[in-house]
Design goal:
Keywords: Ion transport, NAD, Potassium, Potassium transport, Transport. The protein is α/β, with parallel strands linked by helices and 225 residues long. The chain has six helices and eleven strands. Helices cover 26% and strands 26% of the residues. Strands 3-2-1-4-5-6-7-8-11-9-10 form an eleven-stranded mixed beta sheet, with helices on both faces. A hairpin with a 4-residue loop joins strand 7 and strand 8. The termini are far apart.
């Protein structure tokens, strides 16, 4: 997979390093000469250019990229890069960094963003995830398709503890994608039984989140009386 990263600061270089370790082809783009540190990520391609300029993106052959990551420290730049990547070059997957949470509402499909990553929101979500049992925690928003990645740790009092995945009537527009059980990461199938303490990861429509939380958190017989 070929990935272009706009922004060769600490964030961009860290992402590049992870992707290279996983066998992907990575191009780092930055307009600041001081940011071009080939020795820090020697296996990456480097381009000294303004990622907001069409001529620069032509030189980067953005049309050959499977993913573009807008990872600069400037939200305006990240939005422009995302829009150009999607509309001018038809990049299938565009991921954008949100620096200021007040700008998060802009990072959607209208600006070419498939996935928006807000560091403050993600850190807050990880804190909540660490201390919350029985509460739904939103980890990531997918702009395309209007869906979120959400997590809930199944509490002991849940009526679904011991129930097989295939026997649960899940809300519409929700999909259980992963069960984290201790040190194991499980791909759920119909025969798997849910256990108290399981960390359940769902992709769900925002309108279904409350229904999903109600289903998982409390014994239905307790709520009745």
């Amino acid at each position: 997979m070929r990935v272009a990263i706009a922004g060769a600061g600490a964030v961009g270089r860290s992402i590049a390093g992870e992707l290279l370790e996983n066998g992907h082809e990575v191009l780092l783009i930055d307009k600041a000469p001081s940011a071009i540190s080939v020795e820090r990520v020697p296996l990456a391609e480097w381009l000294l250019a303004d990622a907001c300029e069409i001529t620069s993106l032509d030189e980067a052959a953005l049309q050959r990229c499977n993913v573009v990551i807008a990872a600069t420290g400037d939200d305006k730049v990240n939005l422009v890069v995302s829009l150009l990547a999607k509309t001018e070059y038809g990049v299938p997957r565009v991921v954008a960094r949100v620096n200021n949470p007040k700008n998060e509402w802009l990072f959607n499909e209208s600006w070419g963003v498939d996935v928006a990553v807000s560091t403050p929101r993600l850190m807050s979500a990880l804190v909540e995830e660490a201390v919350s049992v029985g509460d739904l925690v939103r980890l990531l928003r997918f702009s395309q398709g209007d869906a979120n990645l959400v997590e809930l740790t199944l509490p002991p009092e849940s009526g679904l503890a011991g129930t097989r995945v295939g026997d649960v009537e899940w809300p519409e527009d929700t999909s259980l994608v992963t069960i984290i059980r201790g040190n194991r990461v499980l791909t759920p199938n119909r025969e798997d039984a849910l256990e108290a303490g399981d960390e359940l990861l769902f992709v769900a429509a925002p309108a279904r989140e409350e229904q999903l939380e109600d289903l998982l958190s409390v014994r239905r017989e307790d709520t009745a009386g």
